[in-house]
Design goal:
Chain lengths: 445, 486
């Protein structure tokens, strides 16, 4: 598969690295040679100094034969034009990064397809969605819904008071209303077997059905944590604006922004219930006067990853149960995790995983890239005669590092254990270590 | 820089239009064989002559062709005054009003859609003059919608952006960028509403003359009567309901009415913050007064509701129609109606007074003050229809409100100095500034405007004009800086 990526910015570079490990033909183009030079020597990909909007350059880069053309320069209009050019030249699928909510509305999809742009990606919107999902329930670190919410996967940090710790998983019983799909411990992702144990401080990923969320809350020892009613966002970025628009009405949101002009800019964009505060979000006096002590969630979204991490630590000290930090510097992510910041948002990773999904051959409708766990979650539609249908799950000898969490059959969510028989047309949710999705595809086709 | 030639030319052209209207009115006595034919014909001729002279004087010469923003302000105030000057002629020439002050007051009250009258005996008035009286209000109403929706945004100062709702104003997202097009659709809405009202009233059983006159005065929210007893003389609950509905409609921003009626965009109307506020304030006042009437007078439920609704809408839209002697009501309810007069309906309608949009912004600003005490660092915007109002707009609204209240207080004092009782003086001041034509204390109801001394009538006339043209458009002419060259 030939993939052309235009724009070697943060998203483009991260995506190129991600895909280069996948045995794909990656061509990364950018006008600035210095952005490309370090990549060229270290990764298995081709780089070219070329303008994304030059017809000749696109031809030279092989956009005409590309299976996927991705335009992720910082400039929205250039991305759109670049995609249109590539489409006319013969690229099969095109994808553009945009900065405009209106463009991403479902009713405009047809319109952009007719322009030659198959997909649009708006990283700020995706990040905002993650934040909103993260604040929905404060004791859950990460939260994904599959098949319109019938199946839920969530990451929960367990402490000493949890019921399930220090005992082998098989002793928890069979026929449980949940399925432990992964454990994240000291930067290592474990796909657990029956004999593995959970220790305090582990981040445990459960797959369950919506009605059983309260069970998870009980076994993870999280019953005393409050519902999120008050949220403070520090830093009035575009993600903050999007999050303000997406948060439910019953949540009181305050945005703290240091720059006065930016504050006025914000007032014109956020819904009327949101209060804009002009000040430094690291100032404890300001935080106290704005009621940090009865705030359930604190989100730090300034341009500086360091500031965000520190502000979240400070908020933790005030007793905020849920903190979310935007960390754009990928090297900091592990560190942020060690410091016990609840949840880390990274635009690049979110955008890259979203794009990654597009290049998959199989009918994968949703790939999630887990920021902490170097793991992927994918949804597959099981085809007639696929290998997974040949026996019950424990006899399939699935590759090590992959587990089937649950499936949707006739709109009914079913949790999967070793004795489950998978049938054609099932919608299966698979949890696997990073880069294994390609290997798993052949089981489902 | 004031371009007098341009002003002369425009005023002259407007007078020629008035002459045509007067000529049209002369057809009524001609058909009905009444006595006032000569009065109309002579007035039309005089107006036409004056118009011709002004147009000739103002003939284009080089640079004098241009119209500046300052000229605009002069033209607006002057057009109302000149229209009233010449519009007073039929009243004087027919002998109905012998005094120039009275005739001018009567006409200006019409053109400002105030509806205050000094005519002693309405029933004896010939049909032509009755129609002319109502028609002055109708023209005034049309003029004011045109002024607020089309002209003010071109001036583009202060809070006027609020008047041209969302989709219309020439300064904002343009419905029709050209003035003439905007003018044409305003006229269409206006005429359609008037015709609908006339037909509805006729069907409800009113006479043709009453139907036409009342619908002209209702749509203009002027509130002119054809009988001595006012609407009371009609004795038809159905007609009251019809007038109520059309008064309410005329209180809506005409840009929104146009979008709703002709483009089917009812969503714009229903989601408009100002309209919602207008409707809610009306409902609250109607409910309060209805309860008051039901418990403290011997009205039944339907009667309490009808009287309450009719008078609240009549006062909020500054029409000033009454169906019963309000002075006999409990004083607190009467005073509540007095408060309704202050509020006014939507901007960009034919109504006078503060306007809903301003009272809403004031309420929001006041609420923000409390938030500011609790959150000293918060940036607290004021939003209308989801858009944040600029600092200067907020300031304009605050200073407008201060001027509005200040003018009422000063004129209240002046009326008292002229010998009116305290409550009557207050009512007179509010009735004039808010263009209601009816005031607390009984002015315009049990007391005729004719009792005002000559100075009082001129004062009231001045207040009507100031109130009608959004205060600043008139007061700016009184500042010395306006007339300086630089």
């Amino acid at each position: 598969m030939r993939i052309v990526i235009a724009g070697a910015g943060e998203v483009g570079t991260h995506l190129a690295k991600l895909l280069s490990g996948e045995d794909q033909d990656i061509i990364l183009i950018d006008e600035k040679e210095d952005r490309l030079s370090s990549l060229d020597s270290n990764f298995d990909l081709l780089t070219a100094v070329a303008s994304p909007t030059s017809i000749k350059d696109l031809k030279d880069a092989g956009a005409a034969k590309a299976d996927l053309f991705v335009a992720v320069t910082p400039d929205e209009s250039r991305n759109l034009i670049s995609c249109q050019l590539a489409h006319k030249l013969g690229a099969r699928k095109t994808l553009a990064r945009v900065d405009n909510y209106e463009y991403t509305l479902p009713e405009n999809k047809e319109f952009f397809t007719s322009l030659g742009v198959n997909s649009l990606i708006y990283p700020e919107l995706l990040a905002a969605k993650e934040i909103v999902a993260g604040t929905k329930i404060s004791w859950i670190r990460q939260w994904w819904e599959f098949a319109d919410g019938a199946l839920v996967m969530m990451g929960v940090k367990v402490r000493e008071n949890a019921e399930i710790i220090n005992t082998p998983i098989y002793t928890l019983g069979t026929n449980l209303s949940y399925h432990i799909v992964a454990i994240m411990r000291d930067n290592e992702t474990i796909i657990p077997g029956g004999s593995d144990m959970i220790y305090p401080g582990d981040l445990v990923y459960f797959m369950t059905m919506k009605k059983d969320i309260s069970t998870i809350r009980k076994i993870a020892g999280k019953q005393d944590l409050p519902e999120v009613r008050d949220v403070i966002i520090m830093g009035g970025s575009r993600i903050a604006v999007r999050a303000a628009q997406l948060l439910p009405d019953n949540v009181n949101l305050k945005i703290i922004e240091q720059d006065l002009d930016r504050c006025h800019w914000l007032t014109e964009r956020v819904p009327s219930g949101v209060m804009i505060i002009n000040g430094d979000g690291r100032d404890p006096n300001l935080l106290i006067s704005e009621g940090i002590d009865h705030t359930e969630a604190f989100v730090a979204l300034t341009d500086s990853s360091e500031t965000n991490i520190l502000a979240c630590l400070a908020a933790k000290r005030f007793g905020v149960s849920k903190t979310i930090a935007e960390v754009e510097n990928i090297d900091y992510i592990t560190m942020a995790e060690k410091l016990d910041i609840g949840f880390v948002i990274n635009k690049k990773k979110i955008a890259a995983s979203h794009i990654y999904q597009m290049m998959l051959d199989a009918d994968v409708s949703n790939v999630k890239c887990l920021t902490f766990a170097s793991a992927d979650v994918a949804e597959f539609n099981v085809k007639e005669g696929a290998r997974v249908t040949r026996g019950i799950v424990k006899e399939l000898s699935l590759p090590h590092g992959a587990t089937i969490g649950g499936l949707i059959r006739n709109n009914q969510a079913i949790l999967v254990n070793g004795d489950t028989q998978i049938e054609p047309n099932d919608h299966v949710v698979v949890f696997c270590l990073e880069g294994m999705i390609k290997k798993l595809e052949k089981y489902f086709n | 820089m004031i371009h007098f030639r341009s002003i002369e030319r425009i005023i002259g052209a407007l007078l020629l239009i008035e002459a045509l209207i007067l000529l049209g009115c002369s057809a009524i006595p001609l058909v009905l064989k009444e006595t006032d034919f000569f009065a109309f014909l002579a007035s039309a001729l005089a107006t036409a002559c004056a118009g011709m002279i002004l147009v000739t004087l103002g003939k284009k010469k080089g640079k004098e062709n241009m119209v500046s923003r300052r000229d605009g302000y002069v033209v607006v105030s002057l057009s109302w005054i000149m229209f009233s000057l010449f519009g007073a002629l039929p009243f004087m020439l027919s002998g109905t009003l012998t005094n120039f002050t009275d005739a001018f007051f009567e006409t200006l009250s019409g053109f400002t859609t105030t509806g205050a009258s000094v005519i002693p005996d309405m029933d004896s008035l010939p049909h032509g003059l009755l129609f002319w009286r109502s028609f002055t209000e109708w023209i005034g109403g049309l003029g004011i919608v045109f002024f607020t929706v089309v002209v003010l945004p071109i001036f583009g100062v202060g809070d006027v952006q609020l008047f041209a709702a969302e989709a219309v104003g020439p300064t904002r997202a343009k419905l029709h960028p050209r003035i003439s097009t905007s003018g044409r659709w305003i006229l269409t809405v206006y005429v359609v509403l008037t015709i609908a009202c006339t037909i509805a009233l006729k069907v409800s059983g009113l006479g043709l003359c009453d139907s036409i006159n009342h619908s002209l005065c209702t749509i203009a929210t002027g509130g002119g009567y054809t009988h001595n007893g006012g609407i009371e003389g009609i004795h038809s609950a159905l007609a009251e309901y019809i007038i109520m509905i059309f008064m309410f409609l005329s209180g809506i921003n005409f840009s929104l009415l146009y979008l709703a009626l002709f483009k089917g965009k009812f969503g714009n109307l229903l989601h408009d913050t100002e309209f919602a506020w207008y409707a809610i304030t009306c409902l609250i006042f109607i409910a309060t007064i209805a309860i008051g009437l039901f418990t403290r007078t011997d009205y039944g439920i339907e009667e309490s509701l009808r009287h309450s609704a009719f008078h609240v809408i009549s006062m909020v839209t500054t029409t000033g129609y009454v169906t019963t002697d309000l002075t006999l009501w409990p004083q607190s309810l009467w005073m509540l109606l007095g408060f309704c007069m202050f509020l006014g309906a939507c901007a960009g309608s034919t109504t006078g007074a503060m306007k809903s949009v301003r009272s809403l912004v004031l309420v929001k600003i006041m609420r923000n003050e409390f938030d500011r005490i609790l959150h000293p660092n918060a940036i607290l915007p004021v939003r209308m229809n989801g858009k944040v109002l600029s600092q200067s707009t907020r300031q304009s609204i605050l200073s407008f409100s201060m001027f509005f209240v200040g003018i009422i207080f000063v004129s209240w004092l002046l009326f008292m100095a002229l010998g009116l009782d305290m409550d009557v003086a207050y009512g007179t001041a509010v009735a004039s500034v808010c263009n209601v034509g009816l005031g607390v204390g009984g002015m315009g109801l049990t007391i005729s405007w004719a009792v005002l001394p000559v100075v009082g009538k001129w004062l009231a006339a001045a207040l009507m004009l100031i109130g009608r043209l959004e205060i600043f458009a008139v007061l700016i002419l009184l500042t010395p800086g306006f007339w300086k060259h630089h």
